[in-house]
Description:
Layout: E1 8-15, E2 18-30, E3 34-39, E4 44-50, H1 61-64, E5 69-75, E6 81-86, E7 91-97, E8 103-118, E9 123-136, E10 142-145, H2 147-154, H3 165-180
Parallel strand pairs: 1-9
Antiparallel strand pairs: 1-2, 2-3, 2-4, 3-6, 4-5, 6-7, 7-8, 8-9, 9-10
Amino acid sequence: MRFEPGRLIVHRNVRQGRIGWVRTARVVSDDDRGLLIFVPRNAPVASEVTADGRGMRTMPFAEWITSSYRLKRGRWQGPPLLKFLPVGAAHSVWWFQDDQGQFANWYVNLEESGVRWDDGTLAGVDIVDQDLDVVVHPDRSWQWKDEEEFAERLALAEHYWVPDEQAVRAEGRRVAAMAEAGEFPFDGTWCDLTPPTDRSMPDELPPGWDRPPAR
């Protein structure tokens, strides 16, 4: 299954059968290397919160797992974001920009390989975010990100969606080694890409954004 450039899709994170977050995106390219998508600033999004509106990162994980949840709609408040999902890989790579729109750094999101779906009027890709991440700087030095959260959640393994800590860390080290070597996609590819702006974002999440997860 491939998506046409320019197509509107939703990129979704799934946690134990529940939608954790949703981001509306446009397809930039889709080929043998993988899927490249663009999330502009203010794109419609949704994220899972507790009944009183708090996000998972605002409380101890032990409290989160005993809460009730709902999906809160909003807008993407981060910078314009390119995301590359390599075929069959247990990670994606994101390109962050600074306030001047220049490349700032790469962000390696460690995740289970995405599962695509296409309902005709709307398509998407569902992943399982594994929480531990790698930040790669322009000089290709790198560091782990969110190690404390990762450790906190691993301590409650029966409630956590990451079954194998060592596999996640091994994937992070593998991709970090690619970055240090300047291998694709850490070779400058897409660092100066300006995604086309001739296709606007909808004001709201498109119908079908909350369909049952594909994984």
